[in-house]
Amino acid sequence: MFFCYILCSLNEKYLNSTYIGFTDDPLHRIRQHNGEIKGGAKFTKRRRPWKLILVTSNFPNKIAALKFEWAWQNPFSSNFIKEDIENKIIIPKMNKKKLYSYYNSIKFKIEVLNVLINSKVFERINLNINIFDDNPMEDIIISDLLQSNYTKINKNINIEEFKKNMKANKKEEINNIINDELSSFEGLNIADKCIICEEVFNNKIKNNKKDELISESSEGGNEDNKESNNEYIVKCKKCKCPFHMVCLANYELGKNNDTFNLVPKSADCFVCGSNLIWSEWVKDLTDQYKK
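Structure (tokenized):
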């Protein structure tokens, strides 16, 4: 899920100053802007601390969210809304310095947001706007400035509730990705096929004992043994997706241009993206032969 968000500075020198951005995790991003963790934009450094005012979500993809962010930041340059801005927002007459402050104010940015969510490009996307309940702008009721027949506007959202909902949405998103990946397996059970080489597993070695493993490894050199080695199956701890051990090792070594080591230090799951050290990948495999 992707978000466009607006921050308001609580710094007395820059009071009413705003910042508009794009992210896939607004709660993590506000911590970056406030210097709690690394990664905030240079613009926000001098104007700390910042308050998260609202977030816009439910974009169909990343590109749509980035276009929305750019139009919100540059309303007079955006082909989506520049004509509407001139026709629907009354710009007060003032000198350049005051006009710059006005263009950067929370009131003007929310008025631009209202034009944007009602534009031909974005009005039927059915966006969601969450306005947080601890709004520092006492003289402005943000929800009164936003009106739309398609965008859902949620007022007085508690930040902790929003955090819980974000976690639930991320979990659902991961499950959807996993289901999409599994649907490409043409009716095969997930345990039947290696995701990397897409070959059906041969489970003839799966139940072998430890002593059989040792005897096989001591033979070396014949084609049957090489084929058997490729049947050692490892599974992701998180989503339980299976891989040939050799396929996964070769893929990771090739990805990192590692021609020296026989096995990688760690490997990423193709489906859920989990990164596990190699010993975690092969742990279940070795536990299988401890009896």
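Confidence is low (pLDDT under 50) at residues 204-229. Residues 3-179 form one domain.
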